[in-house]
Predict the structure.
Amino acid sequence: MKKFFAFVLLSFSILIFSQKKPIVKRPLSTNIEADFIKINDSIPALIPYKKEGKSGFINQKGKIMIPAIYSNVGFFTEDCHLLHSPNLTIRKFGSKNYASVRYNGEDYRIDQSGKRIYFFKDEDLGKCPSQFKAQLFHAYILNKYYGIIEDSKFHDASDYRQFAIYPQFDYLYILEGDDLKNPMIIAVRDDKFGIIDVKGKTIIPFEYEEIKRNYSWKLGRLFEVTKDGDNYYYIDINNNAY
């Protein structure tokens, strides 16, 4: 009888412990979310960078997120040709969650982990709707110097009051952006590049060998600059380098 009760007690104990939830070990944090935290919310979380002639992506803290293996990269931004693809299953790759890159002479879209998830095909490309917006301001040359005029207010070059910026710079170029009333302007003075606004206020000091005339301001609110003519990198509107 004692042996029987001992057996029942042992069986009951096994049953109780078998019904307890197993202990699940939680994986250690990988800090993936921390890598994408923005220091500057007005610019992209991932920023193109170059190394030894190749391009990849860093985060805003300068950590390499996607190695520099591509011959060319764009920002993580929309691709209107894919957004309007006749192939409905392809349109998702046109969202701002992906970036266009060139690898071994072929064009791809990659995700934020760097994985190549779409290979461009001509038959997948749709027609972009017209989004042209005429600039309100233009550069104006007078006596070999550059100034800025607002088209709707300018009629007489002899009246200095009609200039938004009276010609005084060696060179000016208005960058394309979303704010037509307050565009950013590449300016050159004494062979140095800087950025000014339409009131002539210096936004980026005149300390660069070159500032590229591209879409980095429109797409990423960044300027692509160099101080030595060879090594290019991005700066934001506060002159912080990335």
Observations:
- Confidence is low (pLDDT under 50) at residues 1-29.
- The two ends are 81 Å apart (CA to CA).
- The longest helix spans residues 2-19.
